[in-house]
């Protein structure tokens, strides 16, 4: 039996009983939203920090008179601070490209070295397989990546990547990664016009959400994560 859904009406539009079907078995809204990081409990209750190496594990702190999650590496080259979303208090992937997930987050880049070259990237965050090593190319991922003073949109299918230079990074910005059926859109601040759209080298594996920073040239890397939310658009 095919699933049928209620009609979507604009404000003040009329609705009719015939537009509600007897076999309407789901009473959810079109989107499932998860506010997964906003004034929450201890970071380690919802996030795994085991991929932190040398740096400080992410922790809640007050900055600018409001609460943020601080990821800080310390000033020794190649130290990291990282966190990945858990499922049921365990490391796990939480979504798939077929869910058409959307990640929206707000972050402030406090300090990073403008290291040149993708191998010297200092910040990356977005969708990534939970078991994959951080700061590694050609993974199943859709992420924002920072190096050489710029921010890049990146998709990978486990063998190759598509990367787009989005220009100079801002100190504070709202970022969004949006999966469509045959592409991934990346937004920075402007939520109407995509900064980049990728239709090649798209991930196909299950993924979680990761935020990671890395120090380069003995310069401390620090970002403040202000908020993070996941929306999944279900295919029927």
Describe this structure as you would to a colleague.
The chain is mainly beta. It has a single domain, classed as Sandwich (Jelly Rolls), CATH 2.60.120. It is built from one helix and 16 strands. Strands 1, 3, 4, 7, 12, 13, 14 and 16 form an eight-stranded antiparallel sheet that branches. Strands 2, 5, 6, 8, 9, 10, 11 and 15 form an eight-stranded antiparallel sheet that branches. It is globular and about 65 Å long. The relative contact order is 0.24.
Question: What does this entry show, briefly?
Answer:
The chain has 236 residues and is an all-beta fold.
Based on the structure given, which CATH architecture is correct?
Sandwich
- Biggest sheet details: 8 strands, antiparallel
**Class by SSE composition:** mainly beta
What's the mean pLDDT score? Answer: 89
Top keywords for this entry?
2% helix, mainly beta, eight-stranded antiparallel β-sheet, Jelly Rolls
Helix and strand arrangement:
Layout: E1 31-37, H1 43-46, E2 47-48, E3 56-63, E4 66-72, E5 80-87, E6 90-91, E7 101-111, E8 123-128, E9 140-147, E10 150-157, E11 161-168, E12 172-179, E13 184-188, E14 196-198, E15 208-214, E16 222-233
Antiparallel strand pairs: 1-16, 2-5, 3-4, 4-16, 5-6, 5-15, 7-12, 7-16, 8-9, 8-15, 9-10, 10-11, 12-13, 13-14
């Amino acid at each position: 039996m095919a699933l049928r859904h209620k009609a979507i009406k604009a404000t003040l539009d009329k609705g009719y009983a015939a537009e509600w079907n007897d076999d309407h078995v789901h009473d959810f809204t079109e989107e499932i939203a998860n506010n997964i990081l906003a004034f929450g409990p201890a970071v380690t209750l919802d996030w795994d920090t085991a991929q932190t190496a040398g740096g400080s594990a992410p922790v809640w702190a007050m900055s600018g008179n409001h609460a943020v999650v601080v990821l800080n590496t310390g000033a020794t080259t190649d130290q990291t601070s990282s966190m990945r979303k858990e499922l049921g208090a365990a490391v796990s992937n939480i979504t798939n490209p077929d869910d058409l997930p959307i990640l929206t987050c707000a972050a402030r880049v406090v300090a990073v070295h403008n290291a040149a070259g993708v191998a010297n990237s200092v910040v990356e965050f977005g969708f990534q397989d939970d078991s994959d090593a951080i700061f590694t190319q050609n993974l199943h991922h859709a992420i924002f990546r920072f190096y050489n003073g710029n921010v890049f949109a990146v998709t990978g299918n486990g063998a190759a990547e598509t990367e787009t230079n989005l220009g100079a990074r801002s100190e504070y910005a709202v970022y969004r990664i949006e999966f469509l059926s045959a592409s991934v859109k990346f937004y920075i601040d402007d939520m109407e016009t995509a900064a980049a759209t990728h239709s090649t080298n798209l991930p196909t594996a299950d993924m979680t959400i990761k935020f990671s920073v890395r120090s380069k040239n003995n310069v401390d890397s620090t970002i403040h994560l202000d908020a993070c939310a996941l929306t999944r658009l279900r295919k029927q």
